[in-house]
Specification:
Blueprint (H helix, E strand, L loop, with lengths): L10 E6 L3 H12 L4 E4 L7 H5 L6 E4 L7 E2 L7 H6 L2 H10 L4 E3 L4 E4 L4 H13 L3 E3 L4 E7 L2 E6 L2 E10 L14 H8 L4 E7 L3 E2 L2 H9 L4 E7 L4 E8 L3 E3 L1 H7 L8 E4 L6 H11 L5 H5 L5 H10 L13 H12 L1 E3 L3 E2 L7 E6 L17 E3 L7 E2 L4 H14 L2
Parallel strand pairs: 1-2, 1-10, 2-7, 10-20
Antiparallel strand pairs: 3-6, 4-21, 5-6, 8-9, 9-10, 11-19, 12-15, 12-18, 13-14, 13-16, 14-15, 16-17
Helix pairs in contact: 1-5, 1-13, 9-12
The chain binds dihydroflavine-adenine dinucleotide.
Length: about 400
């Protein structure tokens, strides 16, 4: 970037990234008496908040606990999460008359549009005396005797504290960049391989054709591997598999591994199939299965040979029914990959927490440098956990 000549007034805290974490930090630091400037290269702030939760922002999860996050150091998030809780954020919404509802599994959504949260974040920043400057490209960062100097497309800005809140790599067309990782590396931090998470799986060959043929069909399942298991809906798509259970397990998936799907999760399948056989001995096993699973899925599973149909249930022994139940509850499929950054809801991996203070998010190597939000190697499950991390990590940094 060409060096823009203007030298702006220095600020106490310069925040790069006007997303959930950056705006929230700006307001809290402003309230603590710091002169804050928040910069973003986008023309609108917090666009991911806007599109989140289908436009209604699943802004937190009332069951938030450190166990709902992936990180190389599972204990890192503990302190920040304990000091800024879902109840704290709910209290803030009440003060802004933003109403909400619980959808399921502790997930809280706005009753209205997610824009209300963005308005709240921006209003709180401004009320605390902070400034928001959009459409600003960020160039080189250098350390100075009393802080940092940042070259931007609109001039050079000095600051005592530099807060990096530019998020992860998911959805590049929304302006996601690896900026935070570049800054981290510049100052000697390690970056743990960033990878797409909360992302649909894609398949190849016969699996792809098969799943595409029932695209739009959803059913409750348990999706698991050796590291995690999630009970929620699975959705067949034109490219493969999606739905909350799949997005959740994708965060724990390693390329080349199969995933296990229990298609009969929570159904008492053996009892139901046995009772159906007693009532309808002349009907087929497929018709019995159709009382539990969507018809088109049953057709596909029998056509693929994943489970064998038997024309008359009377001819099917209890052991054979049990065998079929076992096959359907241990359905193993190997994704070819994921949809990648294009649709990943978050980035797993990121700035290694070993060189950050879990109390303040400050770099242990470079005093005055902070990393907050999604760029840090703390990744939440689906369901409001990632925003709770954005609020909590920002709050922790602002208390420093
Ligand atoms: P965030 O990505 O919000 O903000 C980063 C900011 O930095 C952006 O404004 C960007 O423009 C700016 N930036 C990036 N690079 C820059 C550069 N080089 N120079 C200047 N500025 C730069 N989570 C959840 O808890 N509940 C939900 O309902 C959803 N739903 C959801 C839907 C979809 C489609 C996506 C993609 C994601 C979600 N998420 C979610 C995840 C959630 O949006 C995400 O974890 C948070 O927005 C992360 O907040 P941050 O502030 O860290 O980054």
């Amino acid at each position: 970037m060409s060096v823009a000549g203007t030298q702006h007034e220095p600020v106490d805290a310069l925040v790069i990234g006007a997303g959930a974490a950056g705006l929230f930090y700006g307001a809290r630091a402003g309230e603590a008496g710091l002169r804050v400037l928040v910069l973003d290269h986008a023309t609108k702030p917090a666009e991911k908040v806007r599109i989140s939760g289908g436009g209604r922002c699943n802004f937190t999860n009332i069951h938030t606990a450190p166990e709902n996050f992936l990180s190389d150091n599972p204990h890192f998030a503990r302190s920040a999460l304990a000091r800024y809780t879902p109840e704290d954020f709910i209290g803030r919404l009440a003060r802004h008359n933003i109403t909400w509802h619980e959808k399921s599994l502790g997930q809280l959504f706005c009753d209205g549009r997610s824009g209300a949260i963005i308005d709240m974040l921006v209003r709180e920043l401004q009320a605390a005396g902070g400034e928001l400057r959009l459409d600003t490209a960020i160039g080189d960062i250098t350390r100075t005797a009393d802080g940092f100097e940042v070259i931007t497309s609109k001039g050079t800005i000095g600051c005592r504290r530099l807060v990096i809140a530019t998020g992860g790599l998911s959805i590049p067309k929304m302006g996601a960049t690896g900026f935070a990782y570049d800054v981290a590396r510049q100052f000697g931090h390690t970056v743990i391989n960033p990878r797409p998470a909360l992302v649909p799986f894609v398949f190849e060959g016969r699996d792809k054709t098969d799943f595409a043929s029932i695209s739009g069909i959803a059913c409750p399942v348990s999706a698991s591997n050796d590291r995690a298991a999630f009970e929620d809906a699975l959705l067949f798509t034109h490219r493969g598999l999606s739905g909350p259970a799949i997005l959740q397990i994708s965060s724990y998936w390693l390329a080349g591994e199969p995933i296990r799907i229990d298609l009969l999760a929570g159904t008492d399948a053996l009892d139901k199939l046995t009772a159906f056989k007693a009532e309808h001995p002349k009907k087929s096993f497929a018709s019995a299965l159709e009382t539990i699973l969507p018809n088109r899925l049953v057709n596909l599973l029998t056509a693929r040979g994943d489970v064998a149909d038997v024309p008359r249930l009377a001819d099917m022994s209890h052991a054979k029914i049990q065998e079929a139940v076992t096959a359907l509850s241990h359905w193993s499929i190997k994704p070819a990959g994921t949809e990648g950054w294009r649709t990943a809801e978050v980035t797993a991996g990121g700035i290694d927490t070993k060189d950050l203070s879990s109390k303040t998010m400050e770099s242990r190597m470079v005093p005055g440098l902070y990393f907050i939000g999604e760029c840090v190697d703390v990744t939440g499950w689906l369901g409001g956990y990632n925003f709770q991390w954005a609020w909590a990590s920002a709050y922790a940094a602002a208390q420093a």
